[in-house]
Amino acid sequence: MKTIELLLLAVAPVTSSPTTEPAPGWFTALSNPMVLVGAVLLLSFMFMGKGKRNDEKQRQEMLKQLKRGDRIQTIGGIQGAVTKVEEARVEVKVDESSNTKIWFTRTAIARVVDADKAETK
Known about the structure:
By secondary structure, this protein is α+β, with helices and mostly antiparallel strands. The protein has a domain at 67-121: SH3 type barrels, CATH 2.30.30. It contains four helices and five strands, in the order αααβββββα. Strands 4-3-2-1-5 form a five-stranded antiparallel sheet. The chain is rod-shaped and about 115 Å long.
């Protein structure tokens, strides 16, 4: 009978787990796939926002440096030369032959054309 008992013990599955230390709390949290997806989304939003902030900062600096004689293009595609600069608006000469001038808000200025040509050369 002793052999049968030993044989049953050898074949029987082990029900007790080996003595290991439990995983730390942060490890179990990181093993959750939703936490990893959330971390990746958070990082991507942070990097996307940084680029937009830099572009907006450059645009604001360009608008502050507008001066008489600058050739500009508006967000509507109108091109002309700046004749007067005020705090909130800019007067642009759009036609040389008829001396047509139009007032635009500073935020309607998309870019300074001369600066773009200088950057590409």
